[in-house]
Design goal:
The protein folds into two domains: about 160 residues, no CATH class; about 60 residues, no CATH class. It contains eleven helices and two strands; from the N terminus they run ββααααααααααα. The protein has a two-stranded antiparallel ribbon with strand order 1-2. The chain is globular, with a radius of gyration of 22 Å.
Amino acid sequence: MKPALLTYPYIASYPVLMLLGFFAAWILVRQRAPLYKIEARHLDNIALLLPIAGLLGSRLFARLFYAKLPLFEALKFWQGGGLVFYGGFIFGIATVLTYGAVRRINIIAFCDCLAPGVAVGLAFGRIGCFLGGCCWGDLCASDATLAHLEVPVAHQVRTFRTISTASWPLAVHFPSGSDPYKQQVKLGLIENGADQSLPIHPVQLYETVLALALAFWLHRKFRGNQAPAGALAMLAGYAVIRFCTEYLRADNKLYAFGLTISQIISIEILLFCLTIGLVRLFVFRCKGDALSPLPERIAT
């Protein structure tokens, strides 16, 4: 954990990693632009708009669903703190769609071009989360350590016992004063004044690796209008990643049906992708049938 890259002048790690993520994504999608016959200036413009939209959406979702403020109060973005990725993600999609419609750009090509860049930006953002100490992972501890906790709380902070043992080789400790440390003090897992937290999963880095793998696959698999649906694959891919990694996060409380808010949103995104995919498949098959010779259609 390293919340500040520099103390004087003070430069926080998280915003720096976010900016690096936007920059890396911008370089990648600019290279992809010729494949989709999109002018690079449009990607320059969207690179300036997305950080603003992402910040507003992230803050709104944090205030609505975590601070549980009324809508009018939640709209006061400048107050309080907290960021939720899915809020920024949804606002970012709305910004891309609006910009594409106003500038009369092929929306499917525009989104497909941007898809790997979104995954790259997410990977950098999760490194920022790790350095900042937010979005932390489940406890890696023995059953005896959690014996005094109520079952729902114990399940929240350690979902999978088999990979959350005290000897888990990838587990990390966070320092005194960090959010994981405070949670463990509050739950009575450690004494206030302990040097560090109990070991936990570095789930932020797990998600970083998975997001980079997704970005690499999208960049290689979907290249130009001959291979559309890159944006749909990105949405579905990240929804699966987020749904799975949520099980290894200790910071998010269960919202409904034993799932967190992010997991419910992930399911909704997957259903949306499945619906769009089936509609596209149906349309393409209908077009193919319409182009087939009549005797062949009758024979089949």
